[in-house]
Design brief:
It is built from three helices and five strands; from the N terminus they run βααββαββ. Helix 2 packs antiparallel against helix 3. The two termini are 26 Å apart. By secondary structure, the chain is an alpha+beta fold. Helices cover 30% and strands 28% of the residues. A hairpin with a 2-residue loop joins strand 4 and strand 5.
């Protein structure tokens, strides 16, 4: 089974909370593991925050957030109008105030990358949506207990 959603949001910091809430609610409705939801929400938050900080809006003046869920993973993506630099994970010092966003994405996601389509840049990441225990077997999903928001 597979499902996907696309949300066009204003190019504004308030869109980060809206995207997190919509993603969380959608994944909870689909019965995705709570830890996978938390990871996907954090990843989309980092990608969207980076786009708002470093990139331009889409030609429409908005930013696009999308996600696709399968039984095994959640792929999240943020599309913007591009930037002067290529998104990459930084290695900030302990005293640095920023620069950890894509490092967090790199840690939580099984893979991530950047696609360019004309003037549109999409940064995407894949988060595992199965709960594996140390022996490699898939365990039963835990219920989503938290409210999104």
């Amino acid at each position: 089974m597979s499902a996907s959603s696309v949300v066009l949001l204003p190019y504004a910091p308030s869109s980060v909370a809206v995207a997190r809430q919509r993603l969380c609610s959608d994944l909870q409705e689909r019965g995705v593991y709570e830890t996978a939801i938390e990871d996907a929400v954090l990843v989309v938050s980092e990608l969207l925050s980076n786009a708002l900080r470093h990139a331009h809006p889409l030609p429409s003046g908005q930013i696009r957030v999308s996600w696709r869920w399968t039984e095994e993973h959640v792929e999240v993506a943020v599309s913007d109008g591009g930037a002067a630099t290529e998104p990459r994970a930084g290695r900030p010092t302990l005293s640095s105030l920023g620069g950890r966003g894509l490092g967090i994405v790199e840690y939580l996601a099984s893979t991530w990358g950047v696609r360019h389509e004309g003037d549109i840049t999409t940064v995407w990441a894949v988060v595992t949506a199965v709960d594996t225990v140390g022996n490699g077997h898939v365990s039963a999903p835990e219920p989503a207990l938290r409210e999104c928001g």
